[in-house]
């Protein structure tokens, strides 16, 4: 068997052995995002560490232990969870996910922490470019909303409506041409989406 070349950075899986699968290894990783509380109000967050079973995040608004939240993490997507611990400036959640979704989370976390080693073409904080061009956003009920593209990047885009149509709510999956995206910010006339990967479901 050839010797392992220690000069080459080695890929670090989030889930490696069956023991790791039970323990759900936690990794330090900062991802921006937001969460919806039980009143459907959204709040900004930044993660400190994550695993495929839970996360600890910093936030100006801290929900009470035992409450249910829906988190939207940049580059990771939507995950429902229950608050299990709080501090003065953050809280920890336990994810409520089925096994196949947990495996997807583990694979995605492995990708995020190793993509620099693999020289991945995807950028975690992709540069955004203003456009001002027109677009039609397809909602899940089939309605097409005429919008103006405020800016766009490899990972998402923001749009402005003309005021005649209500922007889609946070969490809804919409289409822009042949791209799908999940709404992560929504106000009276503007909203922003994070693009979904082709293999990512709408749940």
Integer average pLDDT:
79
**Could you tell me how far the N terminus lies from the C terminus, measured between alpha carbons in angstroms?**
44 Å
Structural class call reads: mainly beta
Rg, Cα atoms, Å: 19 Å
User: What are the secondary-structure elements, in order, as H or E?
Assistant: HEEEEEEEHEEEEEEE
- Structure annotation, total helices: 2
| Major β-sheet annotation | 6 strands, antiparallel, barrel
How much beta, percentage-wise? 35-45%
Helical content stands at 10-25%
Could you tell me the number of beta strands? 14
Read across the widest sheet, the strand sequence of neighbours is 2-3-4-7-6-5
Q: Which ranges are low-confidence, i.e. pLDDT below 50, for 5 or more consecutive residues?
A: 1-23, 117-125
| Overall body shape | globular
